Request: fold
Amino acid sequence: MPVINTDYNPSLPFKNGHFNTVYRPLFMKEKICYTRERITTWDADFIDLDFSKVNSNTLALLIHGLEGSSESKYMISTANKLNGNGIDTVAFNLRGCSGEDNLLLSTYHSGKTEDVHFVVNYLLENYNYENILIIGFSLGGNLTLKYLGEYVTVLSEKIKGAIAISAPVDITSSEKEMDKLKNKLYIEEFLKTIRLKVLEKSHKFPEFKLDKEKLFKATKFKHLEKLYTVPVFGFESPEDYWQKASSKPYLLKIDRPTLLINAQDDSFLGEACFPYDEAKKSALFFLEVTKYGGHVGFLTSFKQNENRWLENRIYRFIKENIQIHITQTIS
Reply:
């Protein structure tokens, strides 16, 4: 029954979910020096991978959230924490998120695990890591969990475990939550960048018949999904997409140590995004629900050197629950 009692207890300002959500991207100072590798996909596109290496036998694949990238603050702080404890990292920029538009009409979505599988196989075939970990945030967390369950029969033994943070494992309930007034500002910020990306795709691919008037009137994810995600990726409807892209139906199939950390005050998550029943029935899927934390926040105070609960929790789960021996070589 791996439902974990959390020790996350932030100071007063960070007990406000919205404050915790916005503080990290707006005020945290994070720096890293990546080495970029561009790989060609099976469908004649490219994916950019950003490595941060310390000559380890263990590699953590980091997957960002909606409209994020390797430059997202949570990606950098996690990479720095893991590097400091002897683990190499590679940040997976989802298609169209690395600062350059990808080559195809299609980009990414919440359940596009074939891209995760392609990247994992690329790493296995081109590098000699003994251990691979997968760590996903928000949309990337849902991708991580869905991938582990969906591809369970073909996963390499080198994939030793995973961690998902602030993951909308039930997209239907998450979308309903996002439609509420409390999330209006967040939605508008997401839609600003997504609208422009979809518009650019329509210019590059004139055969893609986009209703531009509806695009700029869109006020919900559902509106954009109906205009872009559904026709481009072949779903029947937004509701069909939500159901097929959600990781929740795959959680009980996960066969290696995996942790999901979701906060009760995460305004993006509906009640169905807290899979207690699945965790209680599983020996290897762990659920940690915090009272506070916001969406990919989990900050504790204004002191940056003490404000690392999430990064420390990620490393602690790796150290305590994933059976690996981390070694480094001298370059």
Observations:
- DSSP finds eleven helices and nine strands in the chain.
- The chain has a mean pLDDT of 96.
